[in-house]
Amino acid sequence: MEASLLSRITIDADICHGKPTLRGLRYPVELILDLLSSGMTHEEILRDYPSLEEQDILACLAFASKMARSKSHLLH
User: Fold this and answer.
1) How far apart are CA 76 and CA 59, in angstroms?
2) What is the mean pLDDT of residues 16-31?
3) Which residues share a beta bridge with 10?
4) Cβ atoms of 12 and 18 closer than 8 Å
5) How far apart are CA 53 and CA 13, in angstroms?
6) Domains of the chain in sequence order
7) What 3 state SS string does 36-57 have?
8) If pLDDT is split at 50, 70 and 90, which confidence band does 9 have?
9) What is the mean pLDDT of the chain?
10) Which residues contact 6 (CB under 8 A, 6 or more apart)?
11) Is 2 helix (H, G, I), strand (E, B) or coil?
């Protein structure tokens, strides 16, 4: 399941300066994670960003989980 979710995350140097985004759209993963960490619910995010899908939010969480397991990403 995680692999199919992660396939929604794209990195393109021409979109959002190469930051990870959702499905090649101009929605950086970090934006969705920031919204979630601010307390927004999935429903609120989907209402505010109608081109997103529930699976996109789950993909952001799967991406964050994968990055948290990586030893090369440390908090500063």
Assistant:
1) 24
2) 95
3) 21
4) yes
5) 23
6) 2-69 (1.10.10.10)
7) HHCCCCHHHHHHHCCCCCHHHH
8) very high
9) 92
10) 59, 62, 63, 66
11) helix
